[in-house]
Design goal:
single chain, 294 residues, alpha/beta, two-stranded antiparallel ribbon, 10 helices, 47% helix, binds (6S)-5,6,7,8-tetrahydrofolate
Length: 294
């Protein structure tokens, strides 16, 4: 069995530890115009109100890290990403996960970030490895590595493991601590391939067994195109936590998902005396009582 490695990321004032010994770390997904049309429209108009609200709401709902993506077609991504990050940092102090495929935007973001950032992402393509890994090293960041390469997304868990191994090898060659590499097995939609969930779960197990490192996933992709997505997402996320997922990129405002994560942590023995479970229950009860009074 590989050791159980710990990733530490931080903002100017907060530190977050990601490991299989501690609670699941939710990376809030919502500040993303690629996945969400309302955010796209707002950013196009230069309106950052929704960014502020999504930041505050996700942290209140349990996000320990916020993913920030400013991929607006035609926009000046380096400038826009910095502006979105500034906006988020004005209203919360959680560490950020910088979500961009644009190396210039990534570098601008890292320059203006105070703390140890999480970079989302690198992948096994030569172009990506060469552009992103030196920045991970230079800015002493952590990085999410996607299990895809120049040949696309492998269809078997073993081949995805091989891509993970390549990313880890290239990172460690540059002097990046293996604990600062988080692998994303890629949760594709089961609407297109009913094996997609199983492949992501199996890849998670293989990567954890081999390297003992942390695992992230865009865990709500899995149900895209399916009805009643929250039930699929909450079930999948609990199964993935058992397999080794430690820092899902997901939406904590979906109660089923937030509750499933707490229950999974309790079942994994990561919630001493069930304190976090009970606290969350009390918070829900209070909110339900307050809602009834209105
Ligand atoms: N892995 C990594 N990073 C990622 C992903 C991943 N970043 C982006 C994405 N995938 C995860 N983030 C989001 C953000 C928002 C939404 C989904 C995933 C979202 N989608 C709405 C939906 O699914 O219904 C879209 C609806 C709309 O258009 O508003 O909100 O896999 N490392």
């Amino acid at each position: 069995m590989a050791p159980n490695l710990k990733t530490v990321v931080s903002s100017a004032t907060r530190t977050v530890e990601i490991s299989r010994d501690g609670p699941t770390v939710i990376i809030g997904e919502r500040i993303n115009p690629t996945g969400r049309k309302v955010v796209l429209q707002a950013l196009k108009e230069g309106n950052f109100d929704i960014v502020r609200k999504d930041a505050i709401d996700q942290v209140a709902a349990g996000a320990a890290i916020l993913d920030v993506n400013a991929g607006v077609p035609g926009a000046d991504e380096p400038a826009l990403l910095q502006q979105v990050m500034r906006t988020v940092m004005e209203v919360t102090d959680v560490p950020l996960c910088i979500d961009t495929a644009n190396p210039a935007a990534l570098e601008a973001a890292l320059k203006s970030y105070n703390g140890k950032a999480l970079i989302n992402s690198v992948n096994g393509e030569e172009r990506s490895l060469n552009a992103v890994l030196p920045l991970v090293k230079e800015y002493n960041a952590a990085v999410i590595g996607l299990c895809m390469d120049d040949n696309g997304i492998p269809e078997t868990p073993e081949k995805r493991l091989a891509v993970a191994a390549k990313i880890i090898e290239r990172a460690t060659k540059l002097g990046i601590d293996v604990a600062d590499v988080i692998i994303d097995p890629l949760a594709l939609t089961m609407g297109a391939d009913s094996k997609a969930g199983w492949i992501a779960l199996q890849t998670t197990e293989l990567v954890v067994q081999e390297f003992g490192i942390n695992i992230s996933m865009g865990a709500s992709n899995i149900s895209f195109g399916m009805p009643d997505r929250r039930y699929i997402n909450s079930t999948f996320i609990a199964m993935a936590i058992h397999a080794g997922l430690t820092c899902p990129i997901t939406n904590p405002l979906v109660p089923e998902v937030a509750i499933a994560i707490l229950a999974a942590d309790l079942c994994m023995g990561r919630d001493d005396y069930g304190m976090r479970w009970i606290q969350a229950y009390r918070k829900r009860s209070k909110e339900a009582a307050a809602a009834q009074q209105q």
